[in-house]
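Tokens in:
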């Protein structure tokens, strides 16, 4: 089920008129793979991948479930990224933890717990906005995390063939 995460304003807003291609819609470039659906929402396949990535770092710990090509982690309904989980995810994704200022922006503009833990909804918001603005960066993130998976080639192939998330 696709969800709408467009209701954000401020520095994390997806509107960037100064981009090289301000009129194009990102998230729909790879043939057969749609990270975003026709309304610009996170696709089911993309959401399944993001849940797996989120689940690697969440509190409470995630559970394994069978999927087309092996195991995917599934975050519990009340899962969130603690400060340590957020730092670990940022380190694995970007090579460094977020700055204090970036963390403050996440807490201000995204869905978080009362204690400031990033929820799955907030995590999906990050990737919806990033994909709208820089789909290639999103694919780089997916590749980085697939490389940490047991069989990264099958993981990415399954995403590209639409087998994850069904």
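Residues out:
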């Amino acid at each position: 089920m696709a969800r709408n995460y467009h209701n954000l304003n401020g520095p994390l807003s997806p509107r960037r008129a100064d981009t090289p291609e301000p009129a194009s819609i990102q998230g729909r470039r790879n043939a057969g793979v749609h990270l975003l659906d026709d309304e610009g929402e996170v696709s089911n396949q993309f959401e399944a991948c993001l849940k797996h990535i989120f689940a690697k770092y969440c509190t409470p710990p995630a559970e394994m479930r069978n999927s087309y090509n092996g195991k995917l982690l599934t975050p519990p309904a009340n899962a969130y990224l603690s400060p340590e989980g957020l730092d670990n995810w940022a380190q694995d994704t970007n090579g460094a933890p977020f700055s204090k200022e970036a963390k403050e922006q996440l807490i201000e503009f995204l869905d978080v717990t009362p204690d400031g833990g990033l929820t799955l909804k907030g995590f999906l918001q990050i990737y919806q906005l990033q994909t709208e603005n820089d789909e290639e960066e999103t694919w780089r993130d997916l590749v980085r995390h697939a490389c940490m998976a047991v069989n990264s080639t099958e993981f990415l192939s399954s995403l590209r063939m639409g087998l994850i998330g069904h």
